[in-house]
Amino acid sequence: MSLDNIIAQAVSRAVKELYGVDTAPESIVPQATRKEFEGNMTVVVFPWVKAARKSPEQVGQEIGNWLVDNEPAVNRFNVVKGFLNIVIEPTYWNTVLRHIADTADYGTVKATEESPLVMVEYSSPNTNKPLHLGHVRNNLLGFSLSEILKACGNRVVKTNIVNDRGIHICKSMLAWQKWGNGATPESAGKKGDHLIGDFYVLFDKHYKAELAELTAGGMSQEEAEKASPLMQEARAMLRRWEAKDPEVRKLWETMNSWVYAGFDETYRRMGVDFDKIYYESDTYLEGKEKVLEGLEKGIMYRKDDGSVWADLTDAGLDHKLLLRSDGTSVYMTQDIGTAKLRFQDYPIDKMVYVVGNEQNYHFQVLSLLLDRLGFRWGKDLVHFSYGMVELPEGKMKSREGTVVDADDLMDEMVGTAREVSRELGKLDGLSADEAEAIAETVGLGALKYFLLKVDPRKNMTFNPKESIDFNGNTGPFIQYTYARIRSVLRKAAEQGFAISEYATVVPNDKEIALIQRLADFPSVVSEAGRSYSPALIANYVYDLVKEYNQFYHDCSILREEDAAVRSLRLTLSDVTSRVIRTGMGLLGINVPERM
RNA sequence: GCGCCCGUAGUUCAAUGGAUAGAAUAUUGGAUUCCGGUUCCAACGAUUGGGGUUCGACUCCCCACGGGCGUACCA
Fold first, then answer.
1. How far apart are CA A530 and CA A540, in angstroms?
2. Which nucleotides of B are covered by protein (CB under 7 A)?
3. How far is the CA of A549 from the C1' of B32 (A)?
4. In this structure, which of A139, A254, A334, A580 has its CB flanked by the most CB atoms within 10 Å?
């Protein structure tokens, strides 16, 4: 049992005996005592002041006395205003440390057959252009969230819905047909997703030129858009695709396979993966059935023009279109179809969608519709909504060509890591392969940590330079500290220092602070799972690293004469490095054994 | 117009309704020169504004201001 729980339960019993008040131990959350007061943990006593009919100070004194008499883990206490500061029995910390050191996979809970089945959807790219910075935040959040949910004892299925059909795909295909000269990723020497993206841009360029010509000839913008031969050709192609025209389908399959090969490379480098991938071309017709079913049940209604709608005004929302007057699906319909297939494949208990906050309204509606259509997880589906990523230079605009490509960005980060490491002399004496592996780990670690440490809901500014600093709240700083700890442990092993007698000495203040921080880890993980917050883990790991540095600063571990003290410190180092590795693992960030 | 989200040191980010709002970075001053240099200490500096709820509000409610997003046949 964790220290928090022990104190919470003891306090719960204390107020019951002293004042006859029932308080659930879970509602009592002891917090770390502020540095300027004596004590390890602090409990706020205001909640019981009324029932006790005494001053906050008196209540604190009474509970404190009860704890000293009845709870062995409590050594002494002091009361400041309504805050009860508890000093834990010093030898008790040895027990805590031993428990942490002896627990395999400390901080995580293993899933069982009965554990909830959570499906996490993330990434969800279009197949007409490469992944960009926005996808990077999405992918990292989705992957990390999945790892955190796993660590909290859930069964997790990571899924991706690929938007592989529609007018935008036809634009790329058409441009390739017209101006591609049979180019392939091999012949062009380009990743497939980039090649296709280039044709998408090319289409847009010619289309714009056409519009300019038509409007110059006296048409309005709207008329020109309708009359554009290119756009008409693209629409015709979409119709042929929907009619399963073999030639169009063949081209579509070929071009998509190029894109997938490119995406796979990007995902692999980023370190994210999926258990099950869905394609919109498989799901877009499914939603239609579900909607027609809803129409029969009276959940939807049909307008005179034949379009199908849902009336959500009773829930404070609007009327929502589900089938166009020509009978075709819209985005919402497809999501319903995807949900249907997923539920056929897996007995999902909970569904998490990692999708940008511009779709908040969409998911409000989707939740409501799925619920009305009888999906048991529809009502409390989670839209894990995140904000935009901006750069110091300003906003990304695809129209203005200021989109940051994911592959380019990773190259750039790794390149900077390589340079910085070389300047600092970190790569001296390493083979070229080792040096490159470290640059990769550090460059990606910097990117990932910077994007994950921020509250996902907020729009954020990604500063590449700042992210790769080896000082401060950055990935590289944490990786560096980890590598340094491992180095100390390696040297200790070489010198034959054992770490077996650690429980025999009472830790000093800095050591206690570190142990206490380590003891928090499991509750941080479960809280991160509850609130879907990778940022919580990131900031915890950073605090832990700082705590370790303060401990590390004033002790010479390898020169320590007293074997028991030395092994206590080695144990602390060992456990800290393990927690750092686990924590960073939950963020999808690798830590190097040396750097 | 309506709806949702956001607003915290110069900057980038923290703070389950709890004590004097924390870090990092930048700036300034000091310690350390060591198992791994990237360590440590200190100074400076902030809740957009106005009301309300309460023992206590960055946090919850109302109003104003500023920014983002969405707003019915795009995805």
1. 16
2. 3-7, 11-16, 18-20, 23-26, 35-41, 55-56, 68-75
3. 14
4. A139
What three-state secondary structure class fits A83? strand
> Which positions ≥6 away from A271 have C-beta within 8 Å?
A143, A444, A588, A590
SS3 of A309, please?
strand
- Are A15 and A23 contacting, i.e. CB atoms less than 8 angstroms apart? yes
Residue A316: which residues within 8 A CB-CB, separation 6 or more? none
CATH fold of A406-586: Isoleucyl-tRNA Synthetase; Domain 1 (1.10.730)
Mean pLDDT across chain A, nearest whole number? 89
Q: Output the distance from A528 CA to B27 C1' rounded to whole Å.
A: 36
| Adjacency order of strands within the sheet including A319-323 | A300-302, A308-311, A319-323
> How much is the ipTM here?
0.90
Q: Residue A399: its pLDDT value, please?
A: 46
In this prediction the pTM is 0.94
Nearest residue: Cα versus C1' of B39: A553
Which sequence spans correspond to the domains of chain A? 3-89, 117-386, 406-586
Nucleotide nearest A469, CA–C1', reads B38
Query: By C-alpha distance, which of A177, A178, A183 is closest to A195?
Result: A183
